[in-house]
Structures are given as structure tokens and as C-alpha cells.
Amino acid sequence: MSLIDSLPRVGAPKLPKIDGLIPWIVPLVIVLVWQLACVTGYVPSRVLPAPTDVALAGWKLLLSGELIRNIWVSFWRASIGFVIGGGIGFAFGLANGLSQLSAKLTDTTLQMVRNIPHLALIPLVILWFGIDESAKLFLVALGVFFPIYLNTLHGIRTVDPQLIEMGRIYGMTDGELFRRVIFPGALPSIFVGLRFALGIMWLTLIVAETIAASSGLGYMAMQAREFMLIDVVVLSILIYALLGKLADSASRALERLTLSWHPAFQKK
Amino acid sequence: MQEALRFQPVDAEPVDHADIVVKPRHLRRVTESVARGLALTIRGLRKAFGDNEVLRGIDLHIPSGQFVAIVGRSGCGKSTLLRLIAGLEAPTAGSIAFDEEPRAQDVRVMFQEPRLLPWARVLSNVEVGLGRERASADAQARAERALVEVGLGDKRAQWPSVLSGGQKQRVALARALVSQPRVLAFDEPLGALDALTRISMQQLLERVWRDQGFTAILVTHDVAEAVALADRVLVIEDGRIAEDVTIDLPRPRRRGSAELAALEGEILKHLLEGSEDTL
Fold this sequence. Notes:
Chain A: It is a multi-pass membrane protein. The structure holds two protein chains of two kinds. By secondary structure, chain A is mainly α.
């Protein structure tokens, strides 16, 4: 009716499409500026190759199958290490959150181990496992373990005791109480741990692959450095960024799916 | 028209201004309203937390189906008494006996906080109240009936987070009612609500109590609420029953009537005198 009423309706239908693109504006602008800087010769190509050159290098590696193979190897290592470390961390988090005895027995030890930077173990791990697959898996698993453990434990410890009392009053068995009250209550915190762990997973893997590996993205970047292939080095770095973003998006999607009850995840 | 309005009886049921949906007659469980409530007898009840003796000898008999309000200043032990009756705490000494051994779902509690599971839809939250009978075939139908009873039939598929404070408390009431309890203990269930929502909730409580005939025990700090709802008001002071006032007024009671105000004044005066002693 009035002008104010009609205003939002005009803009509203177009908004969702633009909304999805907004986060990509800044990366796009950066790439454009980068390309421009390289083309004009402001940045010499031995310092930073143009995005088009990087894309070309990527295309060549894609055709030779090298890129896919290396990404696949890294992805596989990351996943296996994540499942092992995350699984054990989750199990310890549950056990120590639910059982006082278990917490007393293991928590102090775990807190001590936690304060050792896991990448500091690389020399030891190389001595133990050589540059075998197990070395990388071990490091990833160790890095992923702690964020998952700590956040699972925190999530379970901070479930509203009033809700637990309510569950008991209404005759829930221990199993039901866990399934219907404790686990859903701990889930938001577990997801925080999951996203931290995903970040640490890539970090650890790349460092491990850079130092000691004969395949994978980190290895590809190190090889390229040896032969002064700066475009491949930059390509590797960009792939890390994309993989990291992918992992984050996956965990966000999972979050939206399982936390739809949470006010923060409800559609407006 | 004018005449009809003017000659409305004085004690006509007050108009419900709030958003409670009037329940269809056929849903009322008339057959079950016959003395479903449990009577309980408390003898020499004491409760201490460490050195702090909260209840110092309570003797009390509550007949079946009575609506009892317990008032008193903060820390007088009224909530502890309620938690003991509901079986949430064990007494230090003394006994609480029901006239029949209650099953788990016969005694229910409603707290000041709704305590709804935020990750369960409204209907599932009500189903929680069925306790062990949750798995039975008619569980969902019973939960739906309870929701309709508190006027929230249309909210069954919502998340609790989108409900208002009063609506959440009504879901909590439906959860407490769904197992058709014979004793319902209220621990300041309306304490966190605004004045108007409070009044409509009080009317809802009174209605379900009259329909279902359970024994109601209401802990409140609001003396006006106590005299408006209860058959009997107990004043607790220093862990003992200081006064036992029978409210023998016809229902539904008109809020703000002279009789209620007089009773309220009397009880308040007692409570205030008590507080002066300790100053």
C-alpha cells in the first residue's frame, strides 16, 4: 500500500541468487587484480605467475593424470587419518564425559600429551615409520584426536543438568537418556570440534607430505620447488584452499542437517 | 441487549483474554474425573543438606484431589518439600505415604523452567511424558490429545525455540498431563511468565485440575495466585508449617474480589511479620 510496504517486495525475489554469489566477490576480485598485476608486469612471473599460467599448469597436470592421483592420495590419507583419530577422540570424549572413573584415569594423561605440538613429533615419527603411509596417518590421527576429544567431552559435560533430571523423572533408561538428551545436547560442541579437526587435518597432512612423502599434494609442491615450477607450487596452494573450503562446507551442511532445531540454523 | 448484559450473574465465568483455545466438550475425560487423585500423608518429615536443616518436622495430610498451595519466603523449604513429595529427593527422617502405591507415571512435576528438549518437536516433547508407555501404539494419539487440551494442537510440529514462554510452559504442562498423573506437583511453574500470560495459565491449570481430578500441589511465591487457585494454602516458615488456611470460596473465583483480597492480605501479613522477626 504505502511506499515503504512496496519497497522490500520489489527487491526480494532477486535477492537469493545474489546472496549465494556475495561470498565469491572478494576471491574473484583478488584473482582479477592478481591477473592484472602480472599482465602489466608489475609482479614478475618468477615471483608469482599469472592466474592463467597457474590454470594452464593445472590443465597440463590434469591431462597427465598426475594432479588427480596426487589429490586422491592426499584425500585418502586425510580421510583415513581423520576417521582413526576422530573415532578414538570421540570414544574417549564419550567415555570421559559419561564416566567419572574413565575421566580420572585418562584425562590428565591426555591433557599432558595435548600440550606437545604434534608436528614436533615428525622426526620421531620418521624414525619409527620411515616415510611410509603409516607415518602420515599417525600424524593426522594425532592432530585430529584432540579437538574432537576436547569438544566431545565439553559438550557432554555442559548438557543442561535440568534436562537430564527431567529425563530421569520421566523414566528414561540410561540408553534413552544418552540418545535423546545427552548426545543431541553435546552435538553443537562436537561440531565445533569437527571443524577445528578438519583444519588441523589438512595442515598436518600437508606438512607431513612436504617433509616426507613420495606422493600427494605436499610432495607435488616440493617436487615443483626443486624444478623451479612456481606455477605448480601456486597451484598446490590454491588446491589446499579449495579442499579446506570443501571440508568446511561439508561439515556446515552436516550441521544444518542435524541441528535444524537450533535457533542459529533455522531458516528465516 | 443492554438488559441481558446488565443482568449477567455476578459470578459469571470471567472472559479469557489470553490465547487459550476453548477445548471442545467431548474431549473432557468425564469418566476419569471421579477421584483419580491420590491422597498423601506426611509424618515427621525432615530434610537436611549437610548441617543445614531445611525441613524440621512436617506433618500433613492431603486428601485425594485437593488443590494445595504452598507459600513462604525464599529458602523456607517449600521447594524442598515439593521435591520430596515428587520423589526427587530422599527424606532425612520421616515418611511420605500415598493411599495407593503410585506407579512411576502417577506423580509428575512441572518446574519453573519448561525443560523441553530443544532438539525434539513439540509433539515428541509431549510423548516424553508417557515414560515407559512411550512405545505403545496410541502414544502419539495421547500426546496429541494432551496438546489439544492445553490449546496447542496446531503447534505439534514446531521446534520449542519458536514458542513463547507461556506456550513452552503449556507444552511442559501437556507433557506432565499426558500420562494422566494422580499427583501433579508444580514448582513455581508460572514464576517466569508475564502478568497476563500468568492469569491465563492459572485458568488453564484450574481447568485441567477440575477435568482430571488429580491432587495438585503448587509451590508459589505469589500469595494472590495461591488463594485464587487452591482449596488450601500452607504457609511454611523455618521448615515448619506455620499456617494452614482453608480457602472455601466457590469456583471459578473472580480475581480481585473482596474475599480473595482479604485472605491474601491475611496470609501476606503473616509472612511479613515473620520476616520482621528475623531482621
